[in-house]
């Protein structure tokens, strides 16, 4: 059932991308006030990185909203962020979960997707999002989901999620209003 749901969500995502009526724009990092973070719960270390990112953004005066995705609800016992599962998004893509609906409908100045690979559920949420500028890892198959894509070379001695977050922060802070 999960595989069928992922295929259907992938089709809906492609349709959403083609019919998108949401104005995507760069507001400049200094002017940005509202930032969203979307990520999947792979490891406990990723939660720490997300917490670090959120703290750093809050220290810069930004309002931060976080949504975590996990396949199994018991997979994230120590997660302090709002969490959704694949059960929260029905087969036909209607978002009934209130926190997820609020997250998708929020007009974030920037929406960071902090994952090294895509997932059909998260891609659907990114496509449906009302964020002005979506930031994610460079992936040739997902170029229509992001306004800013970060490409980095993973070094053998590095933590890829830490590097991704550092690059996202670095490049978005360089953005200025034209």
End-to-end CA span: 47 Å
Number of strands: 6
Average residue-wise pLDDT = 82
Largest sheet: 6 strands, parallel
N-to-C SSE string, H for helix and E for strand: HEHEEHEHEEH
Give, in spatial order, the strands making up the sheet with the most strands: 3-2-1-4-5-6
β-strand amount: 15-25%
Please tell me about this protein's structure.
The chain has 178 residues and is of the alpha/beta class. It has a single domain (2-174), classed as Rossmann fold (3-Layer(aba) Sandwich). The protein is built from five helices and six strands; from the N terminus they run αβαββαβαββα. The protein has helices at 2-18, 44-59, 98-105, 120-128, 160-174, and strands at 34-40, 63-69, 83-84, 110-113, 134-137, 148-150. The protein has a six-stranded parallel beta sheet, sandwiched between helices. Helix 1 (2-18) runs parallel beside helix 4 (120-128) and helix 2 (44-59) packs parallel to helix 5 (160-174). The longest helix is centred in the first third of the chain and has 17 residues, at 2-18. The radius of gyration is 15 Å and the shape is globular.
Quick summary:
The protein is of the alpha/beta class.
Write the layout of secondary structure elements.
Layout: H1 2-18, E1 34-40, H2 44-59, E2 63-69, E3 83-84, H3 98-105, E4 110-113, H4 120-128, E5 134-137, E6 148-150, H5 160-174
Parallel strand pairs: 1-2, 1-4, 2-3, 4-5, 5-6
Helix pairs in contact: 1-4, 2-5
């Amino acid at each position: 059932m999960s595989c069928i749901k992922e295929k259907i969500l992938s089709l809906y995502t492609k349709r959403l991308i083609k019919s998108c009526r949401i104005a995507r724009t760069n507001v400049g990092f200094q002017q940005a006030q509202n930032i969203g973070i979307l990520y999947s719960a792979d490891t406990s270390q990723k939660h720490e990185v997300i917490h670090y990112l959120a703290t750093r953004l809050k220290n810069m005066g930004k309002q931060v909203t976080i949504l975590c995705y996990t396949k199994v609800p018991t997979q994230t016992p120590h997660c302090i962020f709002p969490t959704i599962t694949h059960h929260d998004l029905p087969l036909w893509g209607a978002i009934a979960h209130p926190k997820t609906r609020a997250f998708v409908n929020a007009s974030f100045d920037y929406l960071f997707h902090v994952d090294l690979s895509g997932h059909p559920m998260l891609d659907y949420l990114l496509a449906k999002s009302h964020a002005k500028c979506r930031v994610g890892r460079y992936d040739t198959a997902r170029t229509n989901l992001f306004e800013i894509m970060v490409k980095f070379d993973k070094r053998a001695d590095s933590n890829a999620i830490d590097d991704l977050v550092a690059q996202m922060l670095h490049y978005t802070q360089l953005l200025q209003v034209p």
